[in-house]
Amino acid sequence: MRASMWWQLLLSMLALVSSCAARRIQAEATIELPPPLQWQFYQNSCPDAEKYVRDQVEFYWKQDRTLAPKLIRIVYSDCFVKGCDASVLLDGPDSEKKAPQNAAFLGFTLEVIDKIKEVLEQHCPGVVSCADIINLAARDAVVLAGGTSYPVPTGRRDGNSSTAKSVDLPLQAVSWGSVVPYFQEKGLDVQDLTTLLGGHSLGKTGCQFVADRLYNFNKTGKPDPSVDPSFLSQLREQCPPNSTNQVYLNPDSGSSYSLGKTFYSRVLNHRAVLGIDQQIAANNDSYQIAQRYDASFEDFKEMFGRSMTRLGLVKLLPGDQGEVRKNCRVVNAK
Ligand SMILES: *[C@@H]1O[C@H](CO)[C@@H](O)[C@H](O)[C@H]1NC(C)=O
Ligand SMILES: *[C@@H]1O[C@H](CO)[C@@H](O)[C@H](O)[C@H]1NC(C)=O
Ligand SMILES: *[C@@H]1O[C@H](CO)[C@@H](O)[C@H](O)[C@H]1NC(C)=O
Ligand SMILES: *[C@@H]1O[C@H](CO)[C@@H](O)[C@H](O)[C@H]1NC(C)=O
């Protein structure tokens, strides 16, 4: 009896391992890679690259869990501006870092990326690009925050310029109708948008990004009619007029900084913090996706990984352009 129970346990564990591997291979098969990306680009040039990244992310995440949402966010900030070329990491008096959209989350995140780069340069000098580091580190952050792991193809090249003016990420009070084409321009669709907004199940935002919904929605002098009234009074308490307080994007996840299960049910119940998140419920296609994710957290986590992989494919420098920076903050000396 005993032996057979052990045997069954072993078999079910094996089944689990192989179904994870199968899902991973399936995910890789359904994604077409733009050049110069490859699965396991560093297989020969730096076989442990992904492990070095993971060890550092884990080390710093244990010290400060806010690292998870910040690393996830930096992929979007980098890839959406000039493509995934690590331009967001470059120092300079007028670099992307200086744009107001980026100021709030960069500090500690950039130091962690410097540490990761230092370790990689010790082991494999001049091999692993900063743009790949961003994408690999974000994947580790998703996993640490309770998400599902996903494949990150590698081989991105780092760019050579960065200007704050090029940062066109929407700041606040944007309409769904303007964000959808903004995503489509990058090769992403409504499903990616609805799914990536689920990243707002962790982290914080400043009251200034919520204030219009609470006091003067779309210049009407009234609150956003789509906010549940009891939630409106809660939010107004946390964000009095002109406040620069911070609020959790998902009050249910709060200080745990892990992907909460309730993001989409809050959206469906008019209790989303950001206006853009609430608009998921105002459009049929995204509404249906929200219902699906509300019904299955596993489904959401899987699809979140898929959309993160897709986000990492946006507008890459061809392999004969760009470089592998030695220091992520500066372009290599000629
Ligand atoms: C804001 O008001 C304008 C003009 O009345 C309208 O076209 C637009 O759809 C409104 N935006 C939102 C998010 O309600
Ligand atoms: C908030 O700021 C605006 C403009 O800066 C000002 O007119 C208003 O009186 C302020 N409100 C409060 C409650 O301080
Ligand atoms: C959403 O679906 C409803 C009913 O199925 C329809 O009446 C409405 O026009 C649709 N709205 C949009 C924006 O497609
Ligand atoms: C910067 O990168 C672009 C795009 O790859 C390239 O065309 C340009 O020559 C580079 N400029 C310098 C100064 O390296």
From TrEMBL:
Q: Which GO terms describe its cellular component?
A: extracellular region; plant-type cell wall
Keyword Electron transport among UniProt keywords: no
Its GO biological process terms? Answer: hydrogen peroxide catabolic process; response to oxidative stress; response to stress
- Which residues bear the site annotation Transition state stabilizer? 73
Query: Which residues participate in heme b binding?
Result: 200
- Record key words, sorted: Calcium, Disulfide bond, Heme, Hydrogen peroxide, Iron, Metal-binding, Oxidoreductase, Peroxidase, Secreted, Signal
UniProt subcellular location: Secreted
**Which amino acids does the record list as binding substrate?**
170
Keyword Nucleus assigned? no
Q: Which residues bind Ca(2+) 1?
A: 78, 81, 83, 85, 87, 96
Identify the InterPro entries for this entry.
Haem_peroxidase, Haem_peroxidase_sf, Peroxidase_pln, Peroxidases_heam-ligand_BS, Secretory_peroxidase
- The segment(s) forming the Plant heme peroxidase family profile domain are 36-332
Q: How is the cofactor bound?
A: Binds 2 calcium ions per subunit. Binds 1 heme b (iron(II)-protoporphyrin IX) group per subunit.
- What EC number(s) is this enzyme filed under? 1.11.1.7
Protein residues bound to Ca(2+) 2: 252
Per the UniProt entry, the signal peptide is: 1-22
Cysteine pairs bridged by disulfides in the record: 46-124, 79-84, 130-328, 207-239
Cofactor(s), by name? Ca(2+); heme b
One term of GO molecular function: heme binding
Q: What's the domain of life for this entry?
A: Eukaryota
Q: What does this protein do?
A: Removal of H(2)O(2), oxidation of toxic reductants, biosynthesis and degradation of lignin, suberization, auxin catabolism, response to environmental stresses such as wounding, pathogen attack and oxidative stress. These functions might be dependent on each isozyme/isoform in each plant tissue.
What family does the entry list? Belongs to the peroxidase family. Ascorbate peroxidase subfamily.
Q: What is this protein called?
A: Peroxidase
**Species, as recorded:** Eucalyptus grandis
